Amino acid sequence: MQKWVVANWKMNGSKNLLNEYKNAFAESSNLIICPPFVYLGEPAGLKLGAQNIYQQPKGAYTGEVSAQMLAELSVKYCLIGHSERRQYFHEANDIVRAKAETCLRAAITPIICIGETLEQYEAHQTTHVLEKQLAECLPNGTGFWVAYEPVWAIGTGHTPTIDEITAVHLMLREKLPSTTLLYGGSVNGDNAAAIFAINNVDGALVGGASLDVKAVEKIYNHASL
């Protein structure tokens, strides 16, 4: 069974990187790239995801981009509630839910990010934190994905143990039996195979490694076995 690979470039990348992706992954069925907004109009042959949207359909919101605008560029996926959006832009759970609902109305699949901080992890609050985020962030109905990204693992080179990832994804699967579930947090070519082998992990949300096409190819090869 193929696993999804979602490549989040964050505020990085270039046209050269875009061309490398085109050459390496043209027509790939299970890879989604999430580059900065300025590159979303260019990648022919690649599945596209945005890193964010604004929750209103239009208006005097200078600097923001609506879901309808993304849909015009054939964007089919959008990250919602990434921990960096929560940390630096103070997006609370109600904003995350509103953005997810806006995506669904525009026929865009929201990939809703949840995860605990290091302090919460060390206090054994992971399940409590995630359950609260699920209750407050998820829209009604279906059509969304969920990405578990422990905040303390993003960009640090540290990951939870296989047993910890397994336990979290089992909890998520019990609550969301038909939802696509991703794991994110320092996924790379060396640990991807073990992560993809975990029950209930349907794919990976890749951050830092997504800027190295060779690294993504290695992850992608594990996802496509």
Can you walk me through this structure?
The chain is of the alpha/beta class and 225 residues long. It is 37% helix and 16% strand. The protein contains nine helices and eight strands. Strands 1-2-3-4-5-6-7-8 form an eight-stranded parallel beta barrel, surrounded by four helices. It is globular, with a radius of gyration of 16 Å.
List keywords for this structure.
single chain; 225 residues; alpha/beta; TIM Barrel; 8-stranded parallel β-barrel; 9 helices
Relative helix content: 25-40%
Number of domains: 1
* Poorly predicted residue ranges: none
Number of strands: 8
In CATH, the homologous superfamily goes by the name Aldolase class I
SS field, number of helical segments: 9
**Regarding CATH, which class?**
Alpha Beta
Radius of gyration from CA coordinates: 16 Å
Write the H/E string, N to C. EHEEHEHHEHHEHEHEH
Shape type: globular
Strand content: 15-25%
N-end to C-end Cα span: 7 Å
CATH fold-type name: TIM Barrel
Overall mean pLDDT: 95
Kindly summarize this structure in a few lines.
Helix content is 37%, strand content 16%.
List the helices and strands and how they pair.
Layout: E1 4-8, H1 15-25, E2 31-34, E3 47-50, H2 67-72, E4 77-80, H3 83-89, H4 93-105, E5 109-114, H5 118-122, H6 126-137, E6 145-148, H7 162-175, E7 181-184, H8 192-196, E8 203-206, H9 213-223
